[in-house]
Design goal:
There is one protein chain. Helices cover 22% and strands 26% of the residues. With 321 residues, it is an alpha+beta fold. Helix 1 packs across helix 5 and helix 2 runs antiparallel to helix 7.
C-alpha cells in the first residue's frame, strides 16, 4: 500500500461524481481532512515536479483536490468566467455547480404553488391545472445560480387556448424554503424573506426580478424586494402561510415596454433568453429570432423562473438549453 500515493487517490477520485467525492471525503481523515495534505507529501511533491496536482501549502483535502483537478481539465475559459469561485467555497460544490450549469439537462427543481405539477416523470416540463379561474400565479424555478458570464435558456410553450398568464425570465435565487407557499409570482410578491443575500447595494437601478409576459409582450419587473426587519419576519412566522402570502407579500406589478415587445397569440411557440452578466443584459428570442434586449443594468446572481396563472385550461412550459 506504500505505492498507493495521494496522487493516485486524486487521479482515481477524479472519475467520481461530486456526490461520490463528498461521500468518500466523509469516510476518513485522509480523504476528507482539510489539513490532511500537510501531513503527507505526494510522490510528485517529493520530486518537486512542476506538474503536481496538489500543493501542500493550500491545505485542502484530497477530495477537494480531485474536484479542483477535474474542473481545471474540463471547463472552458467562458465556463470558468461564468463560475467565479467565492471565498472559501468548496471545490466539490463548485464542481457540482459546473455540471448543473453546463452539462446536466436544465430542470425545474422547485415548484411553488398548489396547482403546478410536472409533466410526466421528468422535471423539464410543468403545467398548471385545477377547477375554474384563479387570480394567483404558480411558479417553477430552475435554481441553478447564474453568477457571472453568459447563460442561455429555451422555454417551449404549449398554450392550446392562447390565453394570457404565462410569464418567464429571471429572479434572485432563494435559499430559504419557498415551496410551501400556495401561490407565487416573483414580480407580484415580495420574496426577500426567502433569500439570505442582500443585493441592495449592488446598483442604484437594481432588479430582483424581470419577466416577459408572453401574451402581451411587455416586461414585468420588481426593482427591489422588501428588506425585512427581524421583528417583521417574526410577525410573519406567526401567520398562516397563505394569509402571509396574500396580506403581507402582495405588491403591485411594474410593467414596462421595451424595444422588442411583441404580442404572441400562437398556441405553441419557443422563447429563448440570453442573460449576459458581464454586460448586464437580458436578450429575448422568439422562435429563434432575436427580438431585442429586454433589460440592461443587471448585476448580481439570478436563476430562471416560469410563473403560470390558472385559467381553467391546462397549458405547459418546458425548459432546455
Amino acid at each position: 500500500m506504500e505505492t498507493f500515493t495521494d496522487d493516485i487517490v486524486v487521479a482515481l477520485a477524479s472519475f467520481l461524481s461530486p456526490h461520490d467525492m463528498l461521500s468518500l471525503a466523509l469516510t476518513c481523515k485522509r480523504f476528507g481532512d482539510k489539513h490532511g495534505t500537510d501531513k503527507k507529501q505526494s510522490a510528485a511533491s517529493r520530486e518537486e515536479s512542476t506538474g503536481e496536482v496538489r500543493q501542500r501549502t493550500e491545505s485542502i483535502s484530497l477530495m477537494e483536490v480531485a474536484a479542483r483537478t477535474v474542473l481545471q481539465t474540463k471547463w472552458t475559459d467562458d465556463e470558468k468566467n461564468a463560475l467565479t469561485r467565492n471565498e472559501d467555497e468548496s471545490w466539490i460544490g463548485l464542481y457540482e455547480e459546473f455540471l448543473k450549469l453546463f452539462h446536466y439537462p436544465l430542470q425545474f427543481d422547485k415548484l411553488v404553488g398548489e396547482s403546478i405539477n410536472y409533466v410526466g416523470s421528468n422535471q423539464k416540463s410543468v403545467f398548471v391545472s385545477g377547477q375554474g379561474m384563479s387570480a394567483y400565479f404558480h411558479s417553477a424555478i430552475c435554481s441553478n445560480i447564474l453568477r457571472a458570464g453568459k447563460h442561455s435558456v429555451s422555454f417551449n410553450v404549449d398554450n392550446p387556448t392562447g390565453s394570457n398568464g404565462i410569464t418567464l425570465g429571471i429572479m434572485r435565487p432563494t435559499t430559504n424554503d419557498i415551496t410551501s407557499l400556495t401561490s407565487c409570482h416573483p414580480v407580484h410578491d415580495d420574496l426577500s424573506r426567502f433569500s439570505l443575500k442582500d443585493y441592495e447595494n449592488l446598483h442604484n437601478d437594481n432588479v430582483d426580478c424581470c419577466l416577459l409576459d408572453t401574451c402581451m409582450g411587455n416586461g414585468e419587473q420588481k426593482l427591489r424586494w422588501k428588506k425585512w426587519e427581524e421583528s417583521e419576519l417574526a410577525a410573519l412566522a406567526a401567520f398562516d402561510e397563505e394569509e402571509a402570502t396574500r396580506k403581507h407579500l402582495r405588491n403591485f406589478v411594474q410593467p414596462f415596454d421595451w424595444e422588442g415587445k411583441e404580442e404572441t397569440q400562437e398556441t405553441s411557440f419557443k422563447i429563448g433568453m440570453v442573460l449576459d452578466l458581464d454586460e448586464g443584459t437580458l436578450d429575448v428570442y422568439k422562435n429563434d429570432q432575436r427580438l431585442g434586449t429586454m433589460r440592461s443594468g443587471l448585476v448580481g446572481e439570478y436563476c430562471w423562473v416560469v410563473s403560470l396563472k390558472l385559467f381553467g385550461a391546462q397549458f405547459s412550459v418546458s425548459i432546455g438549453r
